[in-house]
Every structure is written in structure tokens, then in C-alpha cells.
Specification:
There is one protein chain. With 89 residues, this protein is an alpha+beta fold. A 5-stranded mixed β-sheet has the order 4-3-2-1-5. It is flat, with a radius of gyration of 14 Å.
């Protein structure tokens, strides 16, 4: 089964996650099919903390890829960010 999940990278005590499409049988940080974005939980100031290529994510979901729990939470968060950017009131 194909899964969209986070792959950890970054230095010790400074996590950085790539959002990747991978075979569910592969290791967390192992070989992946495609990189869809990133999540930086330690972003400060004007740094970008979350970026997702929604068109590619939708493509993979249409092909039957499952989202991990964390990725689905981040996708919802990203959607709220995009709405607030598009319609500042």
C-alpha cells in the first residue's frame, strides 16, 4: 500500500520532516516515491513552517494513497492557513 507520511531529517534535537509518498513496507526514513512538501516544527519568526503541494497530494489520494494521522492533521492546518492568506478580514 502507498502511504503519505513524514520522514525525519535534521540535526539531533532539531527535527525537520519531509512529507513523502512511500511504500508502507519501507523504513520511515528510507526510499520514497515522491516528496510533497515539508514540515518544520521549530520554525521561528518569518520562516515557513509548512509547505504542501496540494495538487500532487490530491493526485496520490486519487490513486489510493492513504494519509498518516499526522499528515492528515497537517493538511487540515495547511488548508486553514491558505484560507486565512486568501481572505484577510
Amino acid at each position: 500500500m502507498v502511504v503519505v507520511r513524514l520522514a525525519r531529517s535534521g540535526a539531533k534535537k532539531r527535527p525537520f520532516y519531509n512529507m513523502v509518498v512511500a511504500d508502507s513496507r519501507r523504513h520511515r526514513d528510507g526510499k520514497f516515491i515522491e516528496r510533497l512538501g515539508f514540515y518544520n516544527p521549530r520554525a521561528t519568526g518569518g520562516e515557513e513552517s509548512l509547505r504542501i503541494q496540494m495538487d500532487r497530494l490530491n493526485h496520490w489520494q486519487s490513486q489510493g494513497a492513504q494519509l498518516s494521522d499526522t499528515v492528515s492533521r497537517l493538511v487540515k492546518q495547511f488548508g486553514k492557513q491558505q484560507k486565512s492568506i486568501q481572505s484577510p478580514e
